[in-house]
Amino acid sequence: EAQVTQNPRYLITVTGKKLTVTCSQNMNHEYMSWYRQDPGLGLRQIYYSMNVEVTDKGDVPEGYKVSRKEKRNFPLILESPSPNQTSLYFCASGYRGDVFYGYTFGSGTRLTVV
Amino acid sequence: GQQVMQIPQYQHVQEGEDFTTYCNSSTTLSNIQWYKQRPGGHPVFLIQLVKSGEVKKQKRLTFQFGEAKKNSSLHITATQTTDVGTYFCAVRDSGSARQLTFGSGTQLTVLP
Predict the structure, then answer these.
(1) Residue in chain B nearest A100 by alpha carbon
(2) A51 touching B, CB under 8 A?
(3) Which of A73, A86, A113, B66 has its CA 20 to 30 A from that of A15?
(4) What is each CA distance from B92 to A1, A67, A70, in whole angstroms?
């Protein structure tokens, strides 16, 4: 089944404790992206990757890191989480070559930083 | 990225009534996409519109792209409780053809 898999689904952590949210897709998509969703603010892009080893900042990159060492994986790293990073996070992927039929989203990771 | 305004933010309708959400941009869009997110779920791609004046239908859903390619609408005829969720439009950034900027969404509640 074509899908984007995020883990974990839920995470509660303490301020300053490094964490990684994993994202993997099995559709051979070149493009992957991370979004955060907050009430009333819609989906805001954190980082995106056009292909392996190619990443760039989205609209709200502060406090986050990403890497794209393999085509299928695009982990989101919070080196020193803070309470304002409490949010619902989505990974998405799209594009095979020049064909774009819309993003496929993962099921989301609800992160709470206390 | 490009800015897109989506209205209304919330809409409550009685089951069987129609519903429309609108997306507006101050700049010409190369295309527009629509997504639906059920409560507790993730966004799911519905459709992409690329041509000026384009109209597409999916059962009770009608999607339109404005003639000037600066606005779009999603209309649901005779809503059902299964239509509950948040509907987002998303536009492709003119500078990076693969980037999408999402509208803030319209949260639809359908009262039985």
Answers:
(1) B98
(2) no
(3) A73
(4) 27, 23, 25
